[in-house]
Each structure stands twice: as structure tokens, then as C-alpha cells.
Design brief:
- By secondary structure, the chain is mostly helical.
- The chain contains two helices and two strands, in the order H-E-E-H.
- It has a two-stranded antiparallel ribbon with strand order 1-2.
- A hairpin with an 8-residue loop joins strand 1 and strand 2.
- The radius of gyration is 14 Å and the shape is globular.
- It starts with a helix and ends with a helix.
Length: about 60
């Protein structure tokens, strides 16, 4: 049985994905093409693997299915 917190996170994720779909941006990197990692010795920006660094929703959609 899912908790209320898990349901809230899933609902929030769906709302975010719909918003990014309308804008044509990757939901994971928000259209920037890079994901910011807070580890100083590993570098702070890593190319988004879900959209292959393009920042486009269409590329993200292909890689998540």
C-alpha cells in the first residue's frame, strides 16, 4: 500500500512532466542538457543521459520508453 507521501511525489512528477512536455524540454535536466551534480571533485555538470544532452522532450520520451 502506497503512502500519502509517495502518492504526492508521483502526482508532482506527472505535473512536472506535463509542464515540460508543453515547453518541449527534458523533465530531468529542465531543457539545459546537463544535470548539476553537487560533488566538487567529480565536476559539477554532467550531460543528461535521458535526453542525450539535447534538452528536448522528444529525445527524453524516446529514451524513457
Amino acid at each position: 500500500m502506497k503512502t500519502k507521501l509517495i502518492n504526492w511525489f508521483e502526482k508532482r512528477k506527472k505535473v512536472h512532466q506535463k509542464k515540460m512536455m508543453k515547453l518541449g524540454k527534458c523533465p530531468d535536466c529542465r531543457g539545459y542538457g546537463v544535470v548539476i551534480v553537487p560533488i566538487h571533485y567529480a565536476g559539477s555538470n554532467i550531460e543528461c543521459y535521458k535526453c542525450n544532452g539535447t534538452g528536448k522532450f522528444s529525445e527524453w520520451e524516446k529514451n524513457t520508453q
